[in-house]
Specification:
- The protein is an alpha/beta fold.
- 37% of the residues lie in helices and 20% in strands.
- The protein contains 14 helices and 19 strands.
- The longest helix has 25 residues.
- It starts with a helix and ends with a strand.
- Bound molecules: 5'-deoxyadenosine and iron/sulfur cluster.
- Iron/sulfur cluster binds next to α7.
- The site of iron/sulfur cluster has 10 residues, from α7.
Length: 483
């Protein structure tokens, strides 16, 4: 996409186009003028800082925000306190994420009192939650811009509205089936990128707020996904992470339905692309076809994130997960048979309403049987509006804490044992960055997504090199490049 060419052909004196993305190109042009004037008044280029909370989806959305901000003339500033425009891209999966945002806003208020020209924007999942916008309107009047998860593509338009009006701008949509393509984005890494393949979720797991804040499932057209990846690869990307709340149900609601496995096969065909990852997989929708494709693929990484949530079939039913403990174990067996050295990671919730010691022991049993390479363990958080929040048998905090600690040590012990097992092997490592502590080292990831530090140079960033894993230190390895 040549945005300069598009902008040079856009008549900014005319009315805004109604169709997308042309409308947003128009507003990018408008915003540029306004930002240039503000920068002249300030005597320096305007600086932005986007802070991302939560998951990979949000990280990708933040790249889209940054892309638009750069297009309209802002420069990136890592320090929130120095930025002229601070944006929090929020998460609301667990309550403590919301508390952190309110805390950070309190701090920013002090800064804004000193610098009234500073802009503060809030977006992401938390904004889609009922009550949050009311609270912000009442107690956080200094916020300039509030928008949700369905209309981030309108960012340039919202900025123009704010700069022209001087009032708090709020634009939240309940839901949409619109997907707007071909807008700027600014990748954090030059050599790897997330790629949205679908938005929203239809599963309504009974503890989860995501379907309420991200809306119904919508898949992008395969041609659009392939064109985007192709473009990225020509721009230096060697690894993509296909993103969706439940990638295994990709394509079901398209006019010409297609399975996730078929999409993967097509992505695999893209010349120059070296590695493919994806997340998240829902066990209930993971097909034999996908396992088959993974077994024969040369590019799909040997890694899968397969959230378990609980090992108790009784609780899984109440969670609305649509699989049993036995289904899950069988699935893992199938995957391991097809891809023997695959790394499996998972999410587990402790303290779901009504969880008994017996239920919890079932979870530990699955953890011991599957031997996850790593697991994200979460204390159940009561999210207003979800069915689980209304359940009466919430588990007392002390019991949850105690179970959480037991689970964590089980997970860590297995994880350490598994990583130690790979010492001595040689793995292909994608070099990602200079080591933050020791500049003579570089840091990269194996196909299994393990982190490896080894002696190397900045020129290697973005390339894949063979590295022997010499020593495992819990979550990472020290290695030596094989020449
Ligand atoms: N409480 C705790 N963890 C949750 N997750 C989702 N909702 C909740 C909740 N209410 C976890 C699930 C999911 C991950 C992204 O967050 O494990 O897989
Ligand atoms: Fe939430 Fe379940 Fe959807 Fe995952 S699949 S986002 S846990 S509702």
């Amino acid at each position: 996409m040549d945005i300069e060419k598009i902008l040079s052909e856009t008549d900014l004196a005319a009315k805004a186009p109604v169709s997308e993305p042309e409308r947003q190109y128009y507003y990018i042009g408008k915003a540029r003028e306004l930002v240039r004037r503000r920068a002249e008044e300030a005597g320096h280029p305007l600086r932005f800082c986007v802070t991302t909370f939560g998951c990979q989806m949000n990280a990708r959305d933040s790249e889209k925000l940054a892309g638009i901000l750069k297009q309209i003339g802002y420069v990136e500033e890592p320090d929130e306190d120095k930025a002229d425009f601070v944006i929090f891209n929020t998460c609301t999966v667990r309550e403590n994420a919301n508390q952190r945002v309110y805390g950070r806003l309190g701090q920013l208020h002090h800064e804004k009192k000193k610098r009234p020209d500073m802009l503060i924007g809030l977006c992401g999942c938390m904004m889609q939650e009922p009550g949050v916008v009311e609270k912000l309107k009442k107690s956080y009047r200094f916020v300039d811009l509030i928008f949700g998860t369905h209309n981030i593509y309108k960012f340039a338009e919202l900025i123009v509205t704010r700069l022209m009006s001087d009032r708090m701008v709020i634009d939240i949509w309940k839901d949409t089936d619109q997907i707007v393509e071909n807008l700027p984005n600014d990748r954090k890494y030059s050599f790897k990128s997330g790629v949205n393949i679908m938005f929203g979720c239809n599963n309504f797991c009974s503890y989860c707020i995501v379907p309420y804040v991200r809306g119904r499932e919508r898949s992008r057209e395969p041609e659009d996904i392939l064109a985007e990846i192709d473009c990225m690869v020509r721009d230096g990307v060697v690894e993509v992470m296909l993103l969706g709340q439940n990638v295994n149900s990709y394509g079901k609601n398209l006019k010409n339905p297609i399975t996730f496995a078929r999409l993967l096969e097509q992505v695999e065909q893209i010349g120059g692309l070296e590695r493919i990852r994806f997340m998240t997989s829902h066990p209930k929708d993971l097909s034999d076809e996908l396992i088959e494709v993974m077994a024969h693929s040369k590019k799909i990484c040997k890694q899968m994130h397969l959230p378990l949530q609980s090992g108790s079939s009784r609780l899984l039913k109440i969670m609305n997960r649509h699989y049993t403990k036995e289904d899950y174990l069988l699935l893992v067996e199938k995957i391991r048979k097809a891809v023997p050295d695959i790394s499996l990671t998972t999410d587990i919730i402790v303290g779901f309403p009504g969880e008994t010691e017996e239920d919890f022991k079932e979870t530990i049993d699955v953890v011991n049987k599957v031997e996850f390479d790593s697991a994200f363990t979460f204390i159940y958080s009561r999210r207003t509006g979800t069915p689980a929040a209304a359940m009466e048998n919430q588990v007392p905090e002390g019991i949850v804490k105690e179970r959480f600690d037991r689970l964590l040590s089980a997970v860590q012990e297995i994880s350490a044992r598994k990583t130690a097992g790979a010492v001595g092997t040689v793995q292909d490592v994608l070099v990602e960055e200079i080591n933050a502590q020791d500049a003579s080292l570089v840091t990269g990831r194996t196909s299994q997504n393990y982190i490896v530090h080894f002696a190397g140079s900045p020129s290697q960033i973005g390339s894949i090199v063979p590295v022997r894993l010499d020593e495992s230190r819990g979550f990472y390895y020290m290695g030596t490049q094989i020449i």
